[in-house]
Amino acid sequence: MKKVTSIILALILALGALSVCSVSxxxxxxxxxxxxxxxYAHAVTGxxxxxxxxxxxxxxxxxxxxVNSNVKYFFLPTSADSTKVDIYNAYKSxxxxxxxxxxxxxxxxxxxxxxxxxxxxxxxxxxxxKFMKSNAEAAIYINNSNADGYGTELMKYLNADKSRSAKAxxxxxxxxxxxxxxAIKKIKGRGNxxxxxxxxxxxxxxxxxxxxxxxxKGKKYSILANYQDDSLSRNRFLYDLADxxxxxxxxxxRYVDFYANGFYWGSYQMTExxxxxxxxxxxxxxxxxxxxxxxxxxxxxxFICEVDAGAKDGEDYYVExxxxxxxxxxxxxxxxxxxxxxxxxxxxxEKFDAFYNSVKGKTSDPTDYADVESxxxxxxxxxxxxxxDSGVSSLYFVYKQDSSGKYxxxxxxxxxxxxxxxxxxxxxxxxxxxxxSDYEEYSGWWCKYKGKSTNSRSINNVMNLISRNxxxxxxxxxxxxxxxxxxxxxxxxxxxxxxxxxxxxMYRAYDYYALLKDSAEMxxxxxxLLNTSxxxxxxxxxxxxxxxxxxxxxxxxxxxxxxxxxxxxxxxxCIDWMTSRAAWLSSEMxxxxxxxxxxxxxxxxxxxxxxxxxxxxxxxAVGSIYFTPSKVSCxxxxxxxxxxxxDATEIQKMIVK
Length: 657
Hints:
By secondary structure, the protein is an alpha+beta fold. It is 27% helix and 22% strand. The longest helix has 23 residues, at 470-492.
């Protein structure tokens, strides 16, 4: 009977069956949500907050059945004190935790050792309790014991149907223990194939703008599960790389631990959602700009769109282009019956068709239709990652005015790269069809094959066409060596190498690891799997490659590196695959690269010196804007090894001569 009870409790935690077997909380309970008989720990010792509580739990399998119910865990967030924790006893009788008696309904501070076990004694049972502690950048708590008004717990309600949404209370707790109790206006499931996985992702809208561990304030976030990525980092690496090389928009994100109604769901990535608006990722696109004051549709207006082969009628606002691509409209996102609904669809179709035709053919020139540099950068992100979904889904473009006022497509923001960087095996029949036999390897071109059929000359994969376009490739080569390579080299460098000032938008590999390791260990100890399916490639060994740009020498190790089958091994495999891939790409593009003559001071790269360059240098010096590596190389006008107001003064002198 006790075994049956413990299984039910696991299901209560994971599936939210609180309305069936819960123990009603007393009126003076310190916990905001409905509790059951369990021990609860708070994220911050001494806090009076009622949201950031977690229940102890046993390891679970992927069906949320308990594994070894006699061993319990507290998966503590980064904010927790390293030696003591406040524990609330929601049992009907007293318990003794590591020598401390805690009466029913009482909170006591208990000493503990990280990654060590202690004994919990009750009148009729003794448990082993192990404390684990994260070092992630923040913890996210979301609570609602009555999501549908009929007593259904939040996660049970949401996970039953992706279309469902709910309000909630909660807490954002940073590493220093600061607690933000901004309410959740809406939480809803997200993802396509990932939604069918047991560890799910969600879109979260807060009632007011919030900051997650130093991110700029915003209301709308996506909390990504990274379930199919054993490194938990592929999305973070490529998002941050996109930011570091100066892509127009790149989602900022943080590693977080996610809790709902006391249950620890695992290590997640809290990410800026792809949204328009002043407080969102695409801040310079107004989603009301399509309408004139009189309610008519403007002749030109900005929009955000996504190439998404999986767009569905009744679920997505999309248009089918002349090329057969489904293009979802992310902003302005209208519903049938809204003013301009059909006109916006027609406008997006017209503009995308023109852009598509401008990159179709090696010698075509997309300059009048798209920002070529941003096309080159989004192509390189997909090529570096060998992104399985390249040109198929999650390929975003922003249509907006350039500096001269002309409307163009910008390749950005990047999104959804868990099946990249050597993670996936791909689909055998498709790989055979396009003639690719080395998809899992870090060598070999990818984007110009994805979407191509060996039985047909017809291609409608827009990333395939972008990768083959001469104008884009020419820009890709210079951008690769001048922006990507310096950032990737710094990312992969060891601790003894001084930090390159040009790469501050991306941490080093060991920095990410330090933030994630403990959270990842909790994630996998709680029950999530490293190898989730046959879709995941073999990450047991890799023969690494290296490239020396000064001698144009490409070398491959004589002996393969083997990786431990744990988080650390899987993380290191991802890093080594990425840097080896970069080495191969450098070796392939080196002969096409001729370093351009640098015009010192031309940091906006328009081919001339102006007051704009001087102003940008002043902004960079005070930290208000970021320079890519190629801009940094132009910014040190006086050659003193620093970029500051003296360089701006030199530019001003040159202008007036």
